Amino acid sequence: MQNDETSEDLEDLNPFPEPVEIEITDVFDLHTIPPRDVKAVVTEYLSEARRLGFPVVRIIHGKGIGVQRETVRAILARTSFVVDWSDAPPDAGGLGATIVWLKS
Question: Which residue from 56, 45, 51, 50 is spatially nearest to 88, judged by alpha carbons?
Fold first, then answer.
């Protein structure tokens, strides 16, 4: 059976034909990011946050069973311009968020 829809037809149905740009702030919530995209998105976010001059950022990954937290921290460990990181204070997410210090 042949599919009559071409990739051009599917592109016409895409509600976001161009990349969607979001404002970069010092807080990034991963809850809307598909798990398969977390590594690439966090890496890009950190680069942009540094470029914009943020000395400290907070990445919200959720508490869950800790998989996202470990993924984020593995990225932080291999990012040369990350100085340090820690759990967020309780009023800023506790175990569900990581505070990251960046080199200027």
Answer: 56
Would you say the C-alpha torsion 16, 26, 91, 72 has a positive or negative sign?
Answer: positive
What is the DSSP track for 22-83?
A: ----SEEEGGGS-GGGHHHHHHHHHHHHHHTT-SEEEEE--STTSHHHHHHHHHHHT-TTEE
Tokens of 44: 């890009």
Q: Rounded to an integer, what distance in angstroms lies between the CA atom of residue 5 and that of residue 3?
A: 6
pLDDT digits (tens, 9 = 90+) for 71-92: 999 999 999 999 999 999 999 9
pTM of the model: 0.80
